Amino acid sequence: DAKTTQPTSMDCAEGRAANLPCNHSTISGNEYVYWYRQIHSQGPQYIIHGLKNNETNEMASLIITEDRKSSTLILPHATLRDTAVYYCIVRLPYSGNTPLVFGKGTRLSVIA
Amino acid sequence: DVKVTQSSRYLVKRTGEKVFLECVQDMDHENMFWYRQDPGLGLRLIYFSYDVKMKEKGDIPEGYSVSREKKERFSLILESASTNQTSMYLCASSFGARSSYEQYFGPGTRLTVT
């Protein structure tokens, strides 16, 4: 799996969009980008994943650059409940039976 | 709604005790995983299982064993608990290799060994 780089921490005002960047310059052509988050004292939670097209679901949007070397997770209207550590992970498809490798992630603090 | 449950949220055990951590999923997933999470070290894989009675060592299996007698249940066993096994233990499950890629996590068990 390709290595990812994320900022250690970010702040966001409640109600504003939170944009979390991730660099994955060594990503290979068939690796997907996944995002998980972990709220304090809970297990990690899957958010979204994508290959090269932008993706949106009820939780977030994922924007992947054309060269696929970086991506941005967007929480359109951040709430206090979105305060968590966000992990960007790059991995091959059809790898459901292999463990996830979590880096240090970005600690997002949503401020009232 | 998908669900992974763990037997305890908090557990306190004494050094040398045998400890059982249970994980149950109701999604008919083939794969199940045990991780531990420590400050500054992130999540580390202990063991995983891709089928009933099958197991594979992860990055840090020493001092642990696992059991998967039924598809829905994956147990982590600390044969003789030690203080350096004080940690948050997280169980996860996922579909088989050819389908969905996301892993679903339980709420975690915070184990303290005194």
What does this structure look like?
The complex is a heterodimer of chains A (112) and B (114). Chain A is an all-beta fold and 112 residues long. Helices cover 0% and strands 45% of the residues of chain A. Chain A contains no helices and nine strands. Chain A has strands at 9-13, 18-23, 32-38, 45-50, 55-56, 61-64, 70-75, 84-91, 106-111. Chain A has a five-stranded mixed beta sheet with strand order 1-9-8-3-4, with no helix packed on it. In chain A, β5 (55-56) and β6 (61-64) form a beta hairpin. The termini of chain A are far apart. The relative contact order of chain A is 0.34. The model of chain A has no long low-confidence stretch (mean pLDDT 91). With 114 residues, chain B is mainly beta. Helix content of chain B is 0%, strand content 53%. Chain B contains no helices and eleven strands. Chain B has strands at 4-6, 10-13, 19-25, 31-38, 42-49, 56-57, 64-70, 73-78, 87-94, 104-105, 109-113. In chain B, strands 2, 4, 5, 6, 9, 10 and 11 form a seven-stranded mixed beta sheet that branches. Chain B has a four-stranded antiparallel beta sheet with strand order 1-3-8-7, with no helix packed on it. In chain B, a hairpin with a 2-residue loop joins β7 and β8. Chain B is globular and about 35 Å long. The chains are: A mainly beta (112), B mainly beta (114). At the A-B interface, β4 of A face β4, β5, β9 and β10 of B.
| Residues in helix, % of chain A | under 10%
Shape of chain A: globular
Give the structural class of chain B.
mainly beta
What is the ordering of alpha helices and beta strands of chain B? EEEEEEEEEEE
- Shape assignment of chain B: globular
Total count of strands of chain A: 9
Portion of residues within helices of chain B: under 10%
Distance between the termini of chain B: 37 Å
Q: Oligomeric form of this entry? A: heterodimer
Summarize model confidence as the mean pLDDT of chain B. 91
| Amount of beta strand of chain B | over 45%
Strand content of chain A: 35-45%
Flag low-confidence runs of chain B: none
Question: Mean pLDDT of chain A, rounded to whole units?
Answer: 91
